[in-house]
Design goal:
The chain has 185 residues and is of the alpha+beta class. It contains six helices and seven strands, in the order H-E-H-H-E-E-E-H-E-H-E-E-H. Helix 4 links the parallel strand 4 and strand 5.
Length: 185
C-alpha cells in the first residue's frame, strides 16, 4: 500500500479537549465566536448579559472548550437544566472556532460524560437548525435520536427557520459506552 493511501486510511486521533468553566474575562472571546459570519447562520446569538447570567446561574454550565497540547481556547458550550428535577439537560449551544478538526466531536463527548456521569442526566437533548446538516450529521453519529421538528420556530431576517430536536437517554449512553463509543466512566 502506498504512503498516501495508508495515511488516508489511518484512524484519526481525537484531539485533546477539556471543558473549563467560562470566566467573565472569556466573554469577549465567546461574543466574537457568536458574531463570526461563519457561525451566525447556525445559531441565535445572545447578548453579553445573557452569557453573564449563564455563568452565574446554577441551572446553567457555561464552558470554554480548550484543545491542543497547550489547551488553548477552541470554542464554548452551554448546558441548561443542570438542576432540573426531571434530569433533562439541554445542550443549548456549542460553537467551535475551527471546524473539521474533531474538536466539536471531542467536546460533545466530554459534554455527554459531564451530563450523564457528573450531573445525573436521564435525557440529554438539543435542537439544531434544520439546514445545519453538518451538525445534524455529527449528532446523529454521536448517538442522538431525532424526536421531531419545531416547524418555523425561529425568526430570522428572511422569515422563519425550523429546528430539529434530538436527544440521547442515559441507557443509550450506557449502551454506547459498553461498545467503547463514549469516554470511559
Amino acid at each position: 500500500m502506498n504512503g498516501s493511501r495508508a495515511t488516508a486510511l489511518a484512524p484519526r486521533v481525537a484531539p485533546r479537549v477539556r471543558l473549563r468553566p467560562t470566566l467573565q474575562s472569556d466573554l469577549d472571546y465567546v461574543l466574537t465566536l457568536e458574531q463570526d459570519p461563519q457561525n451566525l447562520p447556525f445559531i441565535t446569538p445572545w447578548e453579553r448579559t445573557q452569557h453573564e447570567a449563564a455563568i452565574r446561574f446554577p441551572d446553567f454550565r457555561h464552558f470554554i472548550i480548550e484543545s491542543g497540547d497547550a489547551l488553548q481556547a477552541a470554542g464554548f458550550l452551554i448546558l441548561i437544566g443542570c438542576k432540573s428535577q426531571h434530569r433533562s439537560l439541554e445542550l443549548k449551544r456549542m460553537v467551535v472556532q475551527h471546524q473539521g478538526q474533531g474538536v466539536g466531536r471531542a467536546a460533545l463527548r466530554v459534554a455527554k460524560k459531564v451530563s450523564f456521569d457528573d450531573l445525573g442526566a436521564h435525557r440529554f437533548w438539543l435542537d439544531v437548525k434544520t439546514h445545519n446538516t453538518r451538525a445534524r450529521a455529527l449528532y446523529d453519529t454521536e448517538g442522538f435520536v431525532v424526536e421531531g421538528v419545531l416547524r418555523e420556530s425561529v425568526r430570522v431576517a428572511a422569515g422563519f427557520e425550523s429546528l430539529t430536536v434530538m436527544s440521547m437517554l442515559a441507557h443509550e449512553f450506557a449502551d454506547r459506552r459498553a461498545l467503547s463509543l463514549e469516554l470511559p466512566a
